[in-house]
Amino acid sequence: MKLFKKSVVVLTVISMMFSSTLLASAKQSDSDYITYNEYKAAVINEYSKLGFDISFTDPEVTEITITKDMLEKRLQQINEEIKEAQLNNSQQTLIQPNSIQPRNMPYDKTSYFNRQIIAPTAVYGYGNWDIKINFRGNAQYGTVIGINSIDVKQIGYSLNLSNWSYNGYSHTSWGSNVDVYLYMTTTFSWSDPYGGTISHTSEHTLTCQLYG
Description:
This protein has 212 residues and is of the alpha+beta class. The strands form three sheets. The protein has a four-stranded antiparallel β-sheet with strand order 2-9-8-7. A three-stranded antiparallel β-sheet has the order 4-5-6, with no helix packed on it. The longest helix has 30 residues, at 2-31. The chain has one domain. The chain contains three helices and nine strands, in the order αβαββαββββββ. The protein is elongated and about 80 Å long. A hairpin with a 7-residue loop joins β4 (106-118) and β5 (126-138).
């Protein structure tokens, strides 16, 4: 009988120890989870630290299981993507004009350019535009007198481009040539891995060079 009581006591102690371990594990596991709002705030803050102001549209269901480890991996992914991206928002492809024979009178000419704008990284989005600039030149002096018209058209395949606008231009002269600065606004929107939509709106200046 004494042996039986001793065995019961030992089993009771072991059971209590096991239950305590399970409770401790449960508490530890609970602390490893974060809410969707905490995740969203951390993602927005990470983009902000990298110089990008974004908006975040919530998914229809925000009861999503997200751990701190998942958040850390997502923040690391954002940093890696930003660092690997080309920071130049536009890739310039200049079209050189044909040689012009001197003429003692003004002439009108059209030059064509292609420019690309990307989101914080090309992984998130990009778009391509054709730019047509009609200008007046002076054949005698090989100079650009003025700009007649500018036409901006979005072309080809784009990724996650949700909106864009052309907001006007300015120009400066250097020697016989002119730099034309086109002011653009773009909005790119893409899905976050854990739900919701991220949108990034930014201003861009595209440069085109005209040769008289």
